[in-house]
Amino acid sequence: MKINQLIEKTGAVTIEQNELLISGIRTEDLLEMYGSPLYVYCEDVIRDHCRRLKNAVSYPHFSINYSMKANSTIALLKIIREEGLSVDVMSPGEIYCATLAGFKKEEIFFVSNNVDLQEFAYAKEHDIRISVDSLSQLEMFGKAFSGSKVAVRINPGIGDGHHKKVITGGDATKFGIHVSHLDSIKEIAKKYDLHIHGLNMHIGSNFLEYGSYMAAGKVLCDIAKNFDSLEFIDIGGGLGVNYKEGNKGLDIEGLGSNMDRLFNQFAIEYGKEIKFFIEPGRFIVAESGLLLTRVCSRKENPNRTYIGCDSGFNVLMRPMAYGSYHEIVHCQSVEGERETLSVVGNICETGDILAENRALPKVNVDNVLAILDAGAYGYSMASNYNSRLRPAELLVTSAGERQIIRKRDELTDLISSQLVNNEPVG
Ligand code: LLP
Fold it and tell me: Number of H helices and number of E strands within the chain?
């Protein structure tokens, strides 16, 4: 999303005299107050995206399960819950955080992948719906919990997404049970008296055209007719956002009408209006977040100028992991004559690049850069690599208040779980 679109969507971000302000405050002052780098989220944008998606679909038994791997910060989960969304989780840790955020057991769906029996047991103890994604996991689940309800994740044979590492349907993926194994699912279910009450899929992340998603949804609905007492079908997440200026964003309203058609048609053919879920993560939070980072150096090599800032791939991993593009705004000079710069972080690897050969207004030491669309898979993928401290997270509420929703790490956090000779360190 472009900065002007962000400004249109929220009062939290403004430009005055060519300077980017957040809740009326200069970015260097914010970094002084809360430390640099700093994740900032706009509540307005999260709420707006939840509502836009809800309003796009009119099928009566439709729910949106926010995929909390995109951002699992509890203050944000609470906002999403207030908007009436449920949640999709991937681990006991996510079940724990979702519960703390107030999601009830029936609002949580555990979409497991290669888990051990203890993780299934944790979800069962909390009475949470579970999906399994291989025949051997179904067998493991059945042996331990015969007579239970369980959902199965199907690979519909179609994948999509912004990078091969995030495509989760089709031939080259570890996810889901292959369509050719339907009979085996039924045999294992029968052997352990399991009730297959749901089918789910997720074909990949960040698509901007919904053709493959709907085609895969249709495949899943056709498969669903082989199971006679389903309660729900979950067609997954992956709804994309517009990271790059000039790209056309996902047509949410068009997608919504297509989903309505698919769900209603299935209800007629199945003879029952079962529940339908989707599992978006990125669409809900990505555009609400920006990452502020301070410029610490400027290096003019013969062929390339490097802008070195204090945010490495331990803070925002997407550019390093997938070559992902994020818009960058020069907070002290939003518009200005541009030069070609490579923006890099402070991690000890050559691949620690946030943006390569980007046209930006002239950047100097002590300037602040805002990296846009950093609300999804930003903090949730951050690490302490190089023993660096993960940043604080700041929420700008719809009322314009600033709330710290996660403190910056302290040096002692780096050693809090370590032992030497069985004794705590430090
Ligand atoms: N459901 C399942 C089962 C998933 O595995 C995922 C994402 C989602 C839903 C939500 O997908 P979304 O709507 O956010 O695209 N780190 C990568 C994205 C990895 C996605 C992993 N699974 C990135 O930064 O692009």
Answer: 12, 23
User: What is the per-residue pLDDT across 87-145, written as a single tens digit (0 to 9) for each?
Assistant: 999 999 999 999 999 999 999 999 999 999 999 999 999 999 999 999 999 999 999 99
| pLDDT score for 246 | 74
Q: Beta strand 25-26 with 19-22: parallel, antiparallel or unpaired? A: antiparallel
213, containing H or E segment: helix 211-224
Q: 43-56 vs 74-82: helix axis angle to the nearest 10?
A: 40
Q: How many CA atoms lie within 13 A of 341 on its CB side?
A: 24
Longest dimension (CA), the chain: 71
Cα end-to-end distance, the chain, whole Å = 45
In the reported structure, the alpha carbon of residue 87 is separated from the centroid of ligand 1 by a whole-number distance in angstroms of 13
* Position 290, amino acid: L
User: What pLDDT score does 341 carry?
Assistant: 98
Residue by residue, DSSP assigns 316-341 as --HHHHH-----EEETT-SS--EEEE
**Residue of 221, 309, 331, 348 with catalytic role:** 348
Tell me what percent of the chain is helix, strand and coil, each rounded to the nearest 5: 35, 25, 40
Does the beta carbon of 280 sit less than 6 angstroms from any atom of ligand 1? yes
Encoding tokens for residue 35?
Answer: 């430390």
| Residue 236 CB–ligand 1 contact under 6 Å | yes
Task: State how far Cα 359 lies from the chain centre.
Answer: 28
Is pTM, for the whole model, over 0.85? yes
Ligand 1 pocket test: pick from 279, 313, 322, 371 the residue with the most ligand atoms within 8 Å of its Cβ.
279
Domains of the chain, with CATH numbers? 3-42+286-414 (2.40.37.10), 112-280 (3.20.20.10)
Pocket test residue of 66, 69, 175, 200 for ligand 1, highest count of atoms within 8 A of CB: 69
Q: Which residues of the chain carry a pLDDT beneath 70?
A: none
Distance from Cα 282 to the centre of ligand 1, integer Å: 7
Q: Cβ–Cβ contacts within 10 Å for residue 364, how many?
A: 12
Q: What is the pLDDT of residue 1?
A: 74
Q: Are 13 and 365 in contact (CB under 8 A)?
A: no
Euclidean distance between CA atoms 44 and 415, whole angstroms = 37
- Tell me whether residue 221 is one of the annotated catalytic residues: no
How crowded is the C-beta side of 391, counted as CA atoms within 13 Å?
A: 31
**How far apart are the CA of 281 and the centre of ligand 1, in A?**
6
What are the φ/ψ torsions at residue 135 (nearest 5 degrees)?
-65, -40
The response to whether residue 166 sits with its C-beta less than 6 Å from ligand 1 reads yes
